[in-house]
Specification:
Layout: H1 3-11, H2 15-32, H3 35-38, H4 40-58, E1 70-76, E2 94-103, H5 112-130, H6 132-135, E3 137-140, E4 144-145, E5 155-161, H7 164-171, H8 174-189, E6 193-202, E7 211-214, E8 223-231, E9 234-241, E10 243-245, H9 254-258, H10 261-265
Antiparallel strand pairs: 1-7, 1-10, 2-5, 2-6, 3-5, 4-5, 8-9
């Protein structure tokens, strides 16, 4: 099971429920095994976690929390048409689409309706990824939880697109249309599913980002189709990432990263 799916499953249960499950399993071991044997798994696991944390703090073993972290300061922007990094601010718009879903069913995300909705979502993201140029799709985040309550929180996904027109074309595509028709039927028949979205269009000069000692996230996770090489059948394309390091460049300030030079001088 992936770490993302496990995190989503953990959010589906209250902390007290998870503790009770652990207590129940431990009680079962005590009933089946001698007491000194039954407590060994929990004690060894706890000791292992404590030792790992201590050694990691001392720098004697690698810190798992640093895995995938881009050390230092970076910013994420559109690459130039050839896929090269650039110190110039991006002269592109960006559309951010916020998609939220929640289950109001007693079974939460384990309900049949929510699982079916998840399948539609997976099909939609797959279509967007396979048709990046047609839909102007740049990428999305992993599911995020709103943490507004103890469990069963809203799942949010941030996705990035080149323009409103591209996003609208995707919304009118066959996969999204099928999913939306199914969702409308569910909304008419029950209140067990909740869904929302918000759309923001940030024109050139009105968006920027910066990441310091951070894993690629948000716009830094996006991929861009750029020119590659010319072949007999035409020009090939390749996918490149968006990250550009800021250290040693002139893109250290917010206004400069936006390309608003006059405000940057103030």
């Amino acid at each position: 099971m992936s770490s993302v799916k496990w995190a989503i499953m953990k959010d589906e249960a209250e902390l007290s429920t998870l503790l009770l499950i652990g207590a129940g399993l431990q009680s079962l071991l005590v009933l089946l095994l001698p007491a000194y044997v039954a407590i060994l798994p929990a004690c060894l696991l706890l000791l292992s976690r404590a030792a790992s944390t201590y050694l990691s703090t001392l720098g004697l073993i690698s810190n798992p929390r640093l895995e995938g972290v881009s050390k230092g300061k970076i910013w994420a922007a559109y690459p130039d048409p050839k896929g090269d990094s650039t110190e110039r601010a991006p002269k592109n718009n960006v559309v951010v689409f916020v998609l939220g879903a929640r289950s109001n069913h007693p079974l939460g995300r384990f309900s049949p309706e929510f699982r079916e909705m998840g399948k539609y979502f997976q099909s939609m993201w797959k279509e967007a990824e396979e048709n990046r140029e047609l839909y102007g799709y740049l990428g999305k985040t992993f599911p995020l939880t709103s943490a507004e309550q103890g469990s069963g929180n809203v799942l949010l996904t941030l996705s990035y697109w080149k323009s409103i027109e591209h996003l609208h074309a995707f919304a009118r595509g066959p996969t999204h249309r099928a999913g939306w028709d199914w969702m409308n039927k569910q909304l008419k028949n029950s209140h067990s599913l909740g869904i929302m979205h918000e759309t923001y269009m940030a024109p050139y000069g009105h968006w920027e980002n910066v990441y310091a000692n951070f894993r690629p996230f948000g716009f830094a996770q996006t991929k861009h189709l750029v020119h590659n090489t010319k072949t007999e059948s035409g020009e090939s394309r390749k996918l490149v990432g968006a990250q550009i390091e800021t250290r040693g460049t002139r893109l250290g300030g917010m206004y400069t990263r936006m390309g608003r030079k006059e405000e940057a001088k103030q």
